[in-house]
Amino acid sequence: MDRFRQAATQVRIQYRVLKHTYWHYEPDKDFYRLVNIFLSLSGVCYTPANIWERIAWGCYQAISVCHYFLTLIHFVEAMVEWKHLVPIIWNFVEFFMMCTAICKSNIIQHHMKEILAAQKFVNRRQAASGDSEEDSKARKVLFKIIQTLPGTLIWVIGTVVVLAAITIGPDDPLFGQSQFFHRHVSGWRARIVHIILNSALFPIWVGKTYCSTILISCLLMGLKTELTIMSQRFSVLCDNFERTSLENFQESLMVCLRQQNQILDQLIQLQSLVRYDFLVVYYGGLITIGSLIFIPTTDGLTIGSFILTLGITVFFIESFLWCWLVESFGNINDTIEEKIMDVIVMIPHDATRHSEYIRLRTQLMIMKIGTRFSAKFNCGGVFDITVEAVGKLLNITYSLVTFLLNFT
């Protein structure tokens, strides 16, 4: 009993250490530490420090390649046999999700320079509203949210790995292995290898599937927080315009303008990343969600159906989160534009200070134009990213499910 108590004590101590390391907010703590760990676990981005880490990283990548080709073989076998529609659809969806996951990983790796620049910018905490206590509260909330997103997904992946190891065997129609696998491995060895493959399958490929959403959402949330803090400073400045001298107002306005330009520069650099990644997320979701809904409706309720339902929910949340974040930038910018127009109307004109009057109006108009066109994100140039896109996704998904049900 003493050994069990000591073990329980050690577990509690380690839990508190991890909680303090990754959950407790400090003014100089890296917002994106857990996000970067999640990217490493997903096999997307990691820089090995020594030879052993290089070997481990190479083995990790080799396992993901093995998963990819086993899934391809399974899909070809299902097409050749054509016994039932559900295995064909599932194997196609599984292979298709792996292809989209590879696309997302490549997009992230291609834009890693912009991603690291945005992370460094948010970690510098340059924006200031004039109320340091409120700024600290806003950044503390941001820190909690950024830790929650990858932390929750890591917990879900761990739960699914345990459930899959206990309940899903190598002969499972959805998450089982191919005939090619069974021809080379059988009996208890097949069970052990199956558990090993599935234990690596979920962290790697689920991580690759959702890594871009976690990363980009956290980056946009960080920039949104900085923009919100800056807008609060600008709102206070505009509200006190009539009680502030023109020289002091211009000086404070230039500070706000510099802060805004820095934030907008980061948003502009991320536009390409958001544009192409959302293109993969949205059109990949159109195919994936409808197919994942179809499978449980025809194949009955199993642990595999539970995992698929969880995946469907996450896909919808993924699309909605992207659209909501992008629209929230527009709401902040609308508030800034309204304040700018109020100040432009209130600026008194003095013939002796005409040049200062023109300079101030010009600065405000530059700020207004930059605000209006800064947060324009689109889906690969096809359409603008808005919450309405999620409604269209639901309609098209419903049409796809209806077609598949009629087809059967």
TrEMBL record:
<keyword id="KW-1133">Transmembrane helix</keyword>
<feature type="transmembrane region" description="Helical">
    <location>
        <begin position="88"/>
        <end position="107"/>
    </location>
</feature>
<feature type="transmembrane region" description="Helical">
    <location>
        <begin position="202"/>
        <end position="223"/>
    </location>
</feature>
<feature type="transmembrane region" description="Helical">
    <location>
        <begin position="149"/>
        <end position="168"/>
    </location>
</feature>
<feature type="transmembrane region" description="Helical">
    <location>
        <begin position="276"/>
        <end position="295"/>
    </location>
</feature>
<protein>
    <recommendedName>
        <fullName>Odorant receptor</fullName>
    </recommendedName>
</protein>
<feature type="transmembrane region" description="Helical">
    <location>
        <begin position="301"/>
        <end position="325"/>
    </location>
</feature>
<feature type="transmembrane region" description="Helical">
    <location>
        <begin position="56"/>
        <end position="76"/>
    </location>
</feature>
<keyword id="KW-0472">Membrane</keyword>
<keyword id="KW-0812">Transmembrane</keyword>
